[in-house]
Amino acid sequence: MGRKMSTGKSGRAQTTTGEPCSLCDQPPSIHCLQARRNETDLTALVLDIHDGLVQNLFAAYTQVHTLQHILQKGIDAQEVRAGLERVAGLLESSLREIRTFVHAFGPEAVDDHDVCRMVEGLVEQRRQLTGMHIQLQFDGDFPLPPLPIRVALYRILQEALSNAYRHAHATRVNVRLYRKGSVLGLYITDDGQGFDIEKVFSDSGTTKHLGLRGIRERVQTLGGTFRLSSKPGQGTTLQVEFHVYNGS
User: Which of 29, 131, 165, 201 has CB atoms 3.0–4.6 Å from 14's, for a disulfide?
Assistant: First the structure.
């Protein structure tokens, strides 16, 4: 549909698209379009806080809780020292992310110019923190994707691994990063307890499943494909794909 010009009360020309604004149901002025952009930016910030800082702080809390149990059973200085180092690392990472938000709304790890190394680092961190067996596989070569794609991949994997541990109580997770022609994909499966997908996405008025809805929104915002498969007692499979590279 073509664009047209309209004149507001101030006499200033405002650009509209002919489509009603999703916020006020009126032909959108430049102010409406800016409000929509602000809403999108705010949503991205909320998702980054949830998928990054919240996950790190929860992991730090889990480590403190574990150390409390160790101390109750009898002091194991070496194990306590290792646990405190993990907590310190998580808190340090959270502080770095706070500084990163001020600059770019993205995790510091995505500055790495090797997407495989970025994924490996996150997987190894979660192995150490959770004790889960995480199998990692790379299929294809991976020229550096754009920053928004790197941020999305990092946050999606971070959320998926956190969900597998916290909610699904999984013991084994398989992670596969792959490339098929122009497509960059991430495929994650776990042996956890699974869940009712329809219920998760119908509870849109709560924050209980913000992480999964956030993953779907991230993927859709970047024009990617989101697939989720799960049933109670049958584990979970998550697949996301982005058209990133040129050529077939």
Answer: 29
pLDDT at site 189: 98
Number of H helices, E strands in the chain: 7, 7
8-state DSSP, 50: I
Any idea of the CA torsion for 195, 196, 197, 199, to the nearest 10 degrees?
-130
End-to-end CA distance of the chain: 31
* Structure tokens given for 167: 């909610």
Q: Is 17 a residue whose pLDDT tops 50?
A: no
Q: Which residue has the higher pLDDT, 210 or 173?
A: 173
For 25-43, the DSSP string reads: SS---HHHHHHHHHHHHHH
CATH number of 108-248: 3.30.565.10
**Domain layout of the chain by residue ranges:** 19-106, 108-248
Is-contact 192 169, C-beta < 8 A? yes
Question: Torsion angle of alpha carbons 24, 29, 34, 40, nearest 10°?
Answer: 40
